[in-house]
Specification:
Number of helices: 10
Number of domains: 2
CATH class of the largest domain: Alpha Beta
Structural class: alpha/beta
Largest sheet: 9 strands, mixed
Helix content: 25-40%
Radius of gyration: 22 Å
Amino acid sequence: MKKKISIITINYNNLEGLKRTITSVANQTYKDFEYVIIDGGSIDGSADYIESKNNNIDYWVSEKDSGIYNAMNKGIEVANGEYLLFLNSGDELYSNNVLQENYNDIHTEDLIYFNICQVFETSTNIYSYPDYLSYKTFLAGTIGHPTTLIKRSLFHKFGVYDESLKIVSDWKFFFILVVKFNVSRRKINKTLSNFYTNGISSMDVSLVNFERNKVIESEFKDYLRLDSLEKLLFNLKRSRIIKLLNRFGLLLNIKEI
């Protein structure tokens, strides 16, 4: 029988983080989910540890891959759940009861996203994603894959993660689904996962910006033109000449522009 949720963990040479992730999944009071682990051929003992926890895992493999998104796509290929949750090595579910507490809130939306607990070296922060997702949401950030349930059918309909990107392919996937295709989505104002901030996407800001700009230029040219018009309008509204003309009734009220 197909499970409602498949949890997919990607790992490469992160044994200590993997232990934390597997423990958080194995300790869930709700058990009716599928657990998949894709290991990239680690040499730090990860494969032996996964094998020792085989009773808690439905499918796992340890083999070389071409990067994190290649590994995530492998997980998509073998997972059977209606919804997929990527909880990668080092991250963990927020509590032992979190799946049990939220299971009945999983209905039919394409994307169901929650708050996330950001774990820093000396502190934590509960980050609440916006209730309304838009083009500007994704210019500023994204929703996180450790806290978003994704309908598996979306990958069949729109394609899997773009493996030509090194860091922002999950951002691209959410961006396109929400802005271009307006898939159904719902926010649940509860915290689902702990995200440890030492992951790949925090390592190279210049590469993040380069890849994001590449995606925007190729996928959202119309929005780029709209941004230019909005900036022009903003500057017009601040123009002293426009304000003077408007003051003497020689233009429409500036608010109408």
